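**Protein fold record**
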Amino acid sequence: MSIFFYLMSTINLNLLFDSFKSMNYTYLLISLLIIIPVVFVKVIKWLLLVDKKDKISLSKGTFAWVAGFGIGMLTPGKIGDFTKAKFLKSKPGKSLLTVLIDRLNDIFVLFILGIFAVFILFSNKTHLSNLSYLFLLFFVFFIIGILILRNEKLIKKIGMPFYKILVPKKFKSVAGENINIFYENFNKLSKNKIIINFLLSILAWFGCFVQFWFLSISLGLNLSYFSICLILPVLILVQLIPISISGIGTREAAAVLLLSTFGISPELAIAFSLGIMIEDYLLGGIGLLCWLKVK
C-alpha cells in the first residue's frame, strides 16, 4: 500500500478524477459484458481437468469459480482462488491439483506473452533493457519451481520439517493422505487435458485483453489491441506478487512504467490500473456473495 500512496502523492489528482468523470460509459459497459464469456471459458477449462466421477455441473462450476475469485481478491497473490476446490466432489488433494494445474497454465501463458512483450517494449530503452532479462530470470525460476513440484520425493524431503512443525498432530494423517492423493493423481493426469487447458488459457487471456482494451478506450487511452496485449501480461503477473492485497500499488507502479513507453501520462496509467481493479472487485463482490451463501 505504501507504493500506492507514494504514487498518488506524485501525480495530479484532479487529472486522475477528470479521467474517470469523462469516461465513455458505452465502452465501459461493453468491457463489463465481456467478463461473462471470459468467465465461461475459464470455468470450462478448469472443469476439463476434473475427473468425470468428480465433475460438477457448469452452473455449480461457475458458482465455485466466481466464489474462489472473490476470496482470491482478498488474499496476497490471489491464493484464495484455491478455495474453489472445496466445491468439487473429490478429496482436497485431488481437488486442489485441478486448481493448481489450471493456475500454472494461466501463469505460464502470461509469462510467454510477457517475455515477448518486455523485449519489444524495452529493447530500445537502455535504462529499462535489464528489466527484460530480470523478467526472463523470473520465468526460469517459475519453470524450476514446476520441475521441483513434480518431484514427489524431493518435495516430501523439503516439506517434512515444515510438516512436523506446522501441521497440528490431529491433522497430520489427513494432510499426509492428501499429499499422497495429490501426487497419485498428478502422475495420472491426462496430458491431452493439460494441453487443451493450456490452449483455452490462451483464449481466455486474449478475451480478458479485449475486456480491458474496451476499458482503455472508455478512459480515452489511444492504444491498439496489440499494445494492450503487450502491457497486460506483465501487469497481471506483477499484481500476483504476494506483497499486497489485489496487487494494489505494484500494479499501479507497473502501469505507469509500461504505459510511459506509449507516451501515456502517469494519471491516465493509474486510472487504467484502478479501472482494472474496480472491474475485478465487481466480479469479486459477486464471488464473495456466492461464498457467503455457501457458508
Notes: The chain has twelve helices and no strands. Residues 252 and 270 are 5 Å apart (CA to CA).
